[in-house]
Amino acid sequence: EKERKTFLDKYKDKPCVLVEERDHSGKATSIIADNYHGMYAVAEHLVRDHGYRRFTYLAGPHGNTDANERRQAVFDVMNAYKVSFDESRVAYGDFSSCVQQQVNQLLDDFPNMEAMICANDVMAKTAYQECTRRGIIVGRDIAITGYDDWELAKTMNPPLTTVLQNAFDMGYMAMIGAAELCKGKNVIPL
């Protein structure tokens, strides 16, 4: 929040389009994925359609808008379906592949988990690798999901269940929005 405010203050005389971040100040246009509903849908799918009840969540970093919205969606699904779930079942990563420690901590602390929901596909790939290293077969012994529909998600074995976040379209909308702002036109936040 502080970095966003500092950035917007620094460029207050320039039109701004923020991608993957919300602007509550009214100084910029924001283009951001519907993180909450996307993550809600995948978590609900695991509970409602597969009947899983024992979950862990590999979250993104504290203070990140995407991470916060996705984390809230997971908690809301668990609450809506009366699934026992609390902060002890959450490990925080940084959206990178360097989350071996967090994945292994969740696997150690919850050896009977049925599903690990990951806040993005890159961390989900690490979860696949750590499960394989332990002899846990993804798709049979554990379900793992991601978010972003990373290009390599479909090549994972089994293909990763994920949520599409179309970065190309978001970048395109940001460029169109920036061009419109430079022309002096109002742009509706998306």
Q: Strand fraction band?
A: 5-15%
Q: What is the overall number of helices?
A: 6
How many β-strand runs?
Answer: 6
Distance between the termini: 19 Å
**What proportion of the residues is helical, as a percent range?**
40-55%
Which secondary-structure class do the elements indicate? alpha/beta
Q: What is the makeup of the main sheet? A: 4 strands, parallel
Unreliable spans are none
Report the average pLDDT across residues. 88
What's the arrangement of strands in the largest beta sheet?
4-3-5-6
Rg for CA atoms: 18 Å
Order of helical and strand elements? HEEHEHEHEHEH
Shape designation? elongated
List keywords for this structure.
190 residues, alpha/beta, 42% helix, 6 helices
In brief:
With 190 residues, the chain is of the alpha/beta class. The chain has helices at 2-10, 35-49, 65-80, 100-109, 121-134, 167-182, and strands at 17-19, 29-31, 55-59, 90-92, 115-118, 143-145. The longest helix is centred in the middle third of the chain and has 16 residues, at 65-80.
Explain what this protein looks like in three dimensions.
The chain is of the alpha/beta class and 190 residues long. 42% of the residues lie in helices and 11% in strands. It contains six helices and six strands. The protein has helices at 2-10, 35-49, 65-80, 100-109, 121-134, 167-182, and strands at residues 17-19, 29-31, 55-59, 90-92, 115-118, 143-145. Helix 2 runs parallel beside helix 3 and helix 4 crosses helix 5. The model has no long low-confidence stretch (mean pLDDT 88).
